[in-house]
Design goal:
Mean pLDDT: 81
Low-confidence stretches: 3-21, 492-500, 707-713
Largest sheet: 6 strands, mixed, barrel
Number of helices: 27
Strand order of the largest sheet: 2-3-8-5-7-6
Structural class: alpha+beta
């Protein structure tokens, strides 16, 4: 309170001092006016004329007082407020111009804000781990396994040796992903989980919000029935009560005591955190102890574990890579059999999760920057036209003594007001975009759903608004600096300067057209690529309903598991309207994969040749509507682990049975010492891993062919149902059938195959939609700019056009005169744009599918669209020019 009183007293004293200074200046100025007036009277002038001459000699009372104030520096804030008040009055008198300029900048700034909010959420905002830049993944790639290097992590035996011997890592952890059937209030749901060692939370430097993390004692046999749960599961099961600690959760029929609850933003590993994670886990909700036996800790066979490490301070990834390579080279000698030649790869933690989306984010930022530049060009065009219309006003002000700097500042102030208003409107547009974003989310961009207008985004919007204001207002402001008072007084206007404005505006239109060509070309290539992807023959029926069912460890033997799926398929097959029901271990486009080595009899085999392996029931092919092209399918009698038959796809037959009949051919898993399977049929190719990758060789074995041993924690299989019933009815029947067989199991991942196809192309659809939207925004802005320029040109040349028509020019001639100018501008813009697009679209090569980056059809279509739309935008001003009344135009000055 005392501080506020002192500040108020200081302001009063300062105001009184300023008022006293102004009063003293006014007295001195009045004395100078009186002195010069007396001199004029003595020279023979009348008193009135002498006073006028004195005021002229002093430069005007107001101008002199203003100059004095600026020299004094006291009224800087007052001067700015005057500029703002005058700018507000001026903009309010031209609502059409003001609204157009604000909306133009709002589109550019809004698009920029929306994309930055995505980039902020995905790439900039800090991950919920301590110093995530020090985290790395450890992989053990093998050149003999034709698999991406990020699939294989060090075996547990290698992991513990690395943990003991390394000097690069402050901490290491290993974990395995898993799914569990969670019993909650009489219902069962599948949840994503992770079995983690004692260093998991300390390596990530993430502590529970409530309770404690898992420790070394929890990873000892007999003490492992404890769990840490996610914040979302805590809210769902216990309504956020602290009493959750000590209570139990039922996972696969086993009780686990809750010892901790993680913060809201922690759900590692998310599906987007791992390049090849468990496809059934979108986010992790439960963390359990890993609990390895001494034998497992010495196992050298790579498994399903994931290894994360934290670099020591001062250690780079390159240094860690060198040490890891040395350690793995020594450990490789301890591997036996086929598990040899494993190397080392150290990858950035953030690079693995965010690396795949970097190109997309850069693409969107580049596209939105072009949109922003086009919006700035449009706003500059509008402000130039407005400044040209105000040249008489500005010239009179300059003639009366107004400084050029003051007038430039006035124009820049008005531009800033428009830019900030456009920024405010842009925030609203960005907010609306974020409301629509969930419907566009492809689901495989990390943390995209967390995009919001936080403080960082709003500060970015303010900076962009200020920058665009300056870019849009600098040309009109500079035109004032070039104002020649002598020419202005001679021409009683500013025709020469207006002509200069027109040239600058024409250059801006050409630049806008060129940038639109680049965006339209990119959007056209993306659209063609998306159409190509959607046109691919997937090889299966998209109406088939699929789901996943995981059996827990209550089903300990292979026979029990086979009987369960046999009973379930029989029950579902008996439902009215169901045409076929089948089961498979890896469903197409589900991000689940199973590969293995094989040998073909009579073929020059290589030791590292691999194929995609499937285990399917005989009815699976009918349920998926996969055509049989040769031979036959399995029979029910062959659906067992003792069967010696196999079905291959066409790609396998073409590559390994070229020039001979595949039916009756022999295939073995692994080397030739393994038992042989006879090929009994060939089926059509199926797009399994991706819509855009070539179909790989595939081998289908009978459903019970794989190891259904009791050591597995859970065995999951996909069920496929082809039915005339709606998907929702099929889902309800499946749930009812499963509940009647075993109410403690849950069904998840319920989709039609069409849904999976849509998900497989979701990221391409997202980037195509975004780029196309930006291209059409840019096109609309460019057309508005072209229309404005033509309309301004017609209004400026009204008298000239009237004279032409009075001298005999036909209306069609006048229309063609205007349209011809628009055509020249578009022509130059197209030529420049094609050159830029030729270079820019090379960057898009990695995004395209089935189309070249210099596709002639796309470029010709873009040129046609821009030319047609541009000429349509010029037609209205041309028509207005043709309707000018010659007599009225001749009377116009």
């Amino acid at each position: 309170m005392a501080l506020r009183k002192l500040r108020a007293l200081w302001m009063r004293l300062r105001g009184q001092a300023a008022a006293q200074d102004v009063s003293e200046f006014d007295e001195e100025l009045a004395a100078h006016v009186a002195l010069h007036t007396e001199d004029g009277i003595r020279a023979g002038l009348s008193e009135e004329e002498a006073r006028r001459q004195a005021l002229v000699r002093l430069g005007g009372v107001e101008q002199t007082r203003q100059a004095w104030r600026e020299r004094r520096g006291l009224p800087w804030l007052e001067s700015v407020l005057q500029d703002i008040r005058y700018g507000w009055r001026t903009l309010r008198r031209t609502p059409g111009f003001t609204l157009t300029a604000v909306l133009t900048l709002a589109l550019g700034i809004g698009a920029c804000t929306a994309i930055f909010s995505l980039v902020n959420a995905v790439l900039i905002r800090s991950l919920p781990y301590g110093d995530p830049e020090r985290l790395v993944y450890l992989f053990a790639p093998n050149p003999h396994l034709k698999l991406p290097p990020e699939i294989i992590c060090p075996s547990y035996g290698d992991f513990y040796d690395i943990k003991r011997e390394n000097k690069s890592f402050a901490d290491l952890t290993a974990y395995e992903q898993a799914t569990f059937n969670l019993a909650t209030q009489g219902a069962v749901q599948r949840v994503g989980a992770a079995r983690v060692d004692e260093n998991f939370f300390s390596t990530l430097q993430s502590a529970p919000e409530l309770g404690r993390a898992l420790g070394i004692d929890d990873n000892e046999p007999g003490h492992d029935k404890v769990a840490v749960i996610s914040h979302s599961l805590w809210l769902a099961m216990f309504a956020g009560s602290a009493d959750a600690l000590g209570q139990t959760v039922q996972l696969n029929g086993v009780s686990y005591r809750i010892v901790g609850v993680m913060p809201p933003d922690f759900g590692y590993p998310f599906s987007s955190d791992l390049p090849y994670g468990n496809p059934h886990i979108k986010a992790t909700n439960i963390w359990l102890p890993l609990v390895l036996t001494p034998q497992q800790k010495q196992d050298r066979e790579p498994g399903g574990d994931v290894t994360v490490a934290r670099l020591r301070p001062g250690v780079s990834i390159k240094q860690a890579q060198a040490e890891m390579s040395s350690i793995m080279a020594r450990l490789d000698r301890l591997h036996g059999g086929v598990w040899r030649d494993f190397g080392a790869l150290v990858e950035s933690f953030t690079g693995i999760s965010l690396g795949p989306v970097w190109p997309l984010m850069r693409l969107l930022l580049g596209a939105v920057l072009i949109v922003l530049l086009i919006a700035c060009g449009n706003a500059a065009n509008l402000l130039l036209a407005r400044a040209s219309g105000r040249m008489r006003e500005l010239g009179v002000r300059a003639a009366l003594g107004a400084g050029r700097g003051r007038m430039m500042r006035q124009l820049l102030t008005e531009s800033l007001m428009i830019g900030l208003a456009g920024g405010a409107a842009g925030v609203v547009l960005a907010y609306l975009f974020l409301r629509v974003l969930p419907y566009l989310d492809p689901g495989n961009i990390p943390r995209l759903n967390e995009a919001s207008l936080d403080t960082r985004v709003l500060l970015f919007t303010v900076l962009v608004s200020l920058l665009t204001s300056v870019l849009a207002g600098i040309l009109p402001a500079l035109s004032v600096a070039r104002l020649d008072l002598t020419d202005f007084m001679k021409t009683n206007g500013a025709r020469g300067l207006a002509g200069g404005h027109s040239r600058v505006q024409s250059i801006l239109i050409v630049a806008q057209a060129a940038m639109v060509v680049v965006l339209l070309a990119g959007a056209g290539l993306f659209i063609r690529s998306y159409i190509n992807v959607e046109s691919i023959d997937t090889g299966f029926s998209q109406s088939t309903v699929t789901m996943n069912i995981a059996l827990d460890n209550r089903y300990g033997g292979g026979q029990q598991r086979r009987e369960f799926f046999t009973n379930l398929i029989a029950r579902l097959s008996a439902l009215p309207g169901v045409r076929a029901v089948g089961a498979v271990n890896s469903l197409p486009l589900s991000n689940s994969e199973s590969v293995g080595f094989f040998t073909v009899s009579g073929y020059a085999n290589q030791k590292d040749q691999m194929a995609q392996i499937r285990e399917a029931t005989p009815s699976y092919f009918s349920a998926m509507n996969i055509p049989l092209t040769a031979g036959r399918l399995f029979t029910d009698a062959e659906d067992s682990d003792s069967s010696v038959v196999a079905v291959i796809n066409q790609s396998f037959a073409k590559q390994y049975f070229a020039g001979r009949d595949p039916i009756g051919g022999k295939i073995s898993q692994g080397d030739q010492d393994a038992h042989w399977n006879t090929v009994v049929g060939v089926v059509a190719d199926v797009r399994h891993t991706s819509l855009e990758e070539p179909v790989a060789p595939q081998i289908y074995y009978p459903f019970g062919h794989a190891d259904w041993g009791s050591n597995a924690i859970a065995v999951s299989r996909y069920i496929a149902v082809r039915s005339a019933l709606p998907a929702a009815v099929v889902t309800a029947e499946v749930r009812a059938g499963l509940k009647s067989i075993d109410p403690n199991l849950a069904v998840t991942d319920i989709h039609t195959m069409g849904d999976l196809v849509s998900q497989a192309s979701a990221r391409r659809r997202f980037q195509t939609s975004m780029l196309t939207a930006f291209a059409f925004i840019a096109l609309a802005l460019a057309l508005v700019g072209l229309y404005g320029l033509m309309a301004y040109s017609v209004s400026r040349r009204t008298q000239e056009l009237g004279i032409r028509m009075a001298l005999g020019a036909q209306r069609i001639d006048v229309m063609l005169l205007v349209i011809r100018k628009a055509a020249w501008l578009l022509g130059f813009g197209l030529a420049a744009g094609l050159g830029c697009a030729w270079a820019a679209t090379r960057v898009l090569k990695s995004f395209l599918f089935g189309v070249g980056e210099h596709d002639p059809l796309t470029l010709l279509t873009v040129c046609g669209v821009l030319a047609a739309c541009g000429l349509m935008a010029a037609f209205l001003p041309a028509r207005r020019a043709a309707s000018i009344d010659p007599m009225q135009a001749l009377r116009t000055e």
